[in-house]
Amino acid sequence: MTQLDMFLQTSEKILDAPDLLDDYYLNLLDWGSSNVLSIALGDTVYLWDASDGTSSELFTIDEESGPVTSVRWALDGRHIAVGLNNSDVQIWDFTASRLLRTLKGCHRSRVGALDWNNHVLTTGGMDSQIINNDVRVRAHIVETYQGHHQEVCGLKWSASGQQLASGGSDNLLHIWDRSMASANAPTQWLHRLEEHTAAVKALAWCPFQVNLLASGGGVGDGCIKFWNTNTGACLNSVDTCSQVSALLWSKNEPQLLSSHGFIARNQLTLWKYPSMVKIAQLTGHTSRVLFMAQSPDGCTVASAAGDETLRFWNVFGEPEVVQKPICSLEPHIS
Question: Shortest CA distance to 212 belongs to which of 247, 172, 168?
Answer without folding.
Answer: 247
